[in-house]
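Q: My labmate handed me this sequence with no annotations at all. I'd like to see what the chain might look like in three dimensions before we decide whether it's worth expressing. Could you predict it?
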Amino acid sequence: MAPSSPAQSSAPAWQRKISSVLGLAVLAAFCAGCGPVAVPLCNDKASQICGFDSPEDIAALDEATLLAINLRRLDPAQWFALIDARSQKAVTPQWLEPEGPALGEAGCTAPANRHPRGFDVRQNAEGEWRIAVVTEGAGADAAKQNIEYFALIRGPAGSTMRWAGCVNAPPDYFLNDVALGPKGELYATHMYQRETGWRAELMRPKFALGIDTGFAVAWDTAKGWRKVEGTEGSFPNGISLDPTGSVLFVAYTYEYSEGLVRVDLLSGARTTATLPLRPDNLAWTLDPQTKDLSLTVAGGIGVRLLSTTGCAELQRPGCGFAFAVAQIDTKTMAVRTIFKHDTFQIAGASVATRLGDKLYIGSAFGDRVSIVPVDDGGK
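A: Here is what I predict for the chain of 379 residues:
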């Protein structure tokens, strides 16, 4: 399958938005089958790994191991699972008590009851894996967000994990995903201003129109929190940082043309790509042919807003909606679709991580990680 270029549509942006909103209104009035459906029960076939609680984000640690997160669990000791791609089994790392100086902000503490969102992982010079994860409080602490650090150590006797510190997120931010830099610096997506009541309902028309609702933010010990210029967009969602820590990628779920933005943090140069889907999370992958790092991105391809409405009620066994997975050359920003699914047999993807000729697909609304072959076409 030939790659597509990042070229924009010839129609003006405002014209595309108006046409889409009118089409959405017609579909909302007449379409009875636009919404999601429940997927079949998970049964531990070779094409799926059961036993997860909304594995919203997945990252590859090496050519045979992935790390997945359970979005719906409140106990940090049960958040993460290591997946062995050879045996297709998932194991929870042994939980250890914190030790030594904490990363992040001095004195930062997290609520006792909280659940995770997106995460990122990076290996340090000592071989230890550092994890950063966006967390959100539950119950009375529902509005409190942190980014928490964890340390993952893998060895012959098994894997262990411990809490390693945190950073308090400002109350004005509504964070979704995080990218971890080589020196512990953080980048995250601020999706939109968190509102309640009728003000919250105003978000849907903004998403329908592709109006800017948020941006990427950064944090480090020297400068604290700040906005990353050139990252405004409609529902910033997935975010990734290249291995050098100098190039940032941000995915926007409801943008019409600039679904993915590449920002050079040193020069400020900004490049965009149009995606054949509404993106959720980003994941790094090693291209099996070129051996170059690229990004995979997953997201819905059904009717905007309508195709995933109601997914919260279908978390088990899973919410099925039409989706696709694309692979992005991060140097040229060329985009290539490598998987598409519209038969509602797989929980709709929020992330897809490639290992060789297989994709490991996670969902914010499902009880499994699905495994499918990559469609490399004529590449």
